[in-house]
Amino acid sequence: MEKLIAPSILASDFTRLGNEIEMLNQSDADYIHCDVMDGVFVPNISFGIPVIDQINKIANKPLDVHLMIVDPDRYIKAFKKAGADILTVHYEACTHLHRTVQSIKDEGMRASVCLNPHTPIHLLEDIIQELDMVLLMSVNPGFGGQKFIEHTYHKVSQLRQLIEKRNTNTLIEVDGGVNYETGKKLFEAGANVLVAGSFVFGSENPTETIRNLKNL
């Protein structure tokens, strides 16, 4: 199974954002993970469409955009225009999830749905075949540097079983508390993509850290 790494630029040094993106361009990173927070759906505010538009001008890796916002349907076209390649919406934020997923695909982006730590896997049974990726939060969304929630391993295994049962190519992405120890166990449980923020950008050699994560 392919192992993909998506460093989260939320943990990068925004005074050197251009340099940080160039570093990711030259690294073994597969995606650039962009966390968009509105201060309503989650108790934090990060950045939005103008910043992603600027990142897209420099990045040569796909932009993996995670919307932690209310009413994401309003902004699907705008994020496509800004350069998003993968657009993740939260199950908990979408009243008509199937319509939202189809709207993302209609714009030519890959569609991903995120589950908060308390949200069970079985709620995706009726839509899993429509999804390019599922993002499982292994911390409560909103802030970096939180402690990894151990139950996530079980959720990854459950999701892997569902994907295999439905014979889909849906990727499993995990975000929160990723390091060498948790990352290895997540890959073993069936994850495909690891989001790593502070573990990458807080390390002495981010490029080497990304390479080591891929080789777990």
UniProtKB/TrEMBL annotation:
<feature type="binding site">
    <location>
        <position position="66"/>
    </location>
    <ligand>
        <name>a divalent metal cation</name>
    </ligand>
</feature>
<comment type="pathway">
    <text>Carbohydrate degradation.</text>
</comment>
<dbReference type="GO" id="GO:0046872">
    <property type="term" value="F:metal ion binding"/>
</dbReference>
<keyword id="KW-0862">Zinc</keyword>
<dbReference type="InterPro" id="IPR000056">
    <property type="entry name" value="Ribul_P_3_epim-like"/>
</dbReference>
<feature type="binding site">
    <location>
        <position position="35"/>
    </location>
    <ligand>
        <name>a divalent metal cation</name>
    </ligand>
</feature>
<feature type="binding site">
    <location>
        <position position="8"/>
    </location>
    <ligand>
        <name>substrate</name>
    </ligand>
</feature>
<dbReference type="GO" id="GO:0006098">
    <property type="term" value="P:pentose-phosphate shunt"/>
</dbReference>
<dbReference type="GO" id="GO:0004750">
    <property type="term" value="F:D-ribulose-phosphate 3-epimerase activity"/>
</dbReference>
<feature type="binding site">
    <location>
        <position position="175"/>
    </location>
    <ligand>
        <name>a divalent metal cation</name>
    </ligand>
</feature>
<feature type="binding site">
    <location>
        <begin position="197"/>
        <end position="198"/>
    </location>
    <ligand>
        <name>substrate</name>
    </ligand>
</feature>
<feature type="binding site">
    <location>
        <position position="66"/>
    </location>
    <ligand>
        <name>substrate</name>
    </ligand>
</feature>
<comment type="similarity">
    <text>Belongs to the ribulose-phosphate 3-epimerase family.</text>
</comment>
<keyword id="KW-0479">Metal-binding</keyword>
<comment type="function">
    <text>Catalyzes the reversible epimerization of D-ribulose 5-phosphate to D-xylulose 5-phosphate.</text>
</comment>
<keyword id="KW-0464">Manganese</keyword>
<protein>
    <recommendedName>
        <fullName>Ribulose-phosphate 3-epimerase</fullName>
        <ecNumber>5.1.3.1</ecNumber>
    </recommendedName>
</protein>
<feature type="binding site">
    <location>
        <position position="33"/>
    </location>
    <ligand>
        <name>a divalent metal cation</name>
    </ligand>
</feature>
<keyword id="KW-0413">Isomerase</keyword>
<keyword id="KW-0170">Cobalt</keyword>
<keyword id="KW-0119">Carbohydrate metabolism</keyword>
<feature type="binding site">
    <location>
        <position position="177"/>
    </location>
    <ligand>
        <name>substrate</name>
    </ligand>
</feature>
<feature type="binding site">
    <location>
        <begin position="142"/>
        <end position="145"/>
    </location>
    <ligand>
        <name>substrate</name>
    </ligand>
</feature>
<dbReference type="Pfam" id="PF00834">
    <property type="entry name" value="Ribul_P_3_epim"/>
</dbReference>
<dbReference type="InterPro" id="IPR026019">
    <property type="entry name" value="Ribul_P_3_epim"/>
</dbReference>
<feature type="active site" description="Proton donor">
    <location>
        <position position="175"/>
    </location>
</feature>
<feature type="active site" description="Proton acceptor">
    <location>
        <position position="35"/>
    </location>
</feature>
<dbReference type="InterPro" id="IPR013785">
    <property type="entry name" value="Aldolase_TIM"/>
</dbReference>
<feature type="binding site">
    <location>
        <begin position="175"/>
        <end position="177"/>
    </location>
    <ligand>
        <name>substrate</name>
    </ligand>
</feature>
<dbReference type="GO" id="GO:0019323">
    <property type="term" value="P:pentose catabolic process"/>
</dbReference>
<dbReference type="InterPro" id="IPR011060">
    <property type="entry name" value="RibuloseP-bd_barrel"/>
</dbReference>
<dbReference type="GO" id="GO:0005737">
    <property type="term" value="C:cytoplasm"/>
</dbReference>
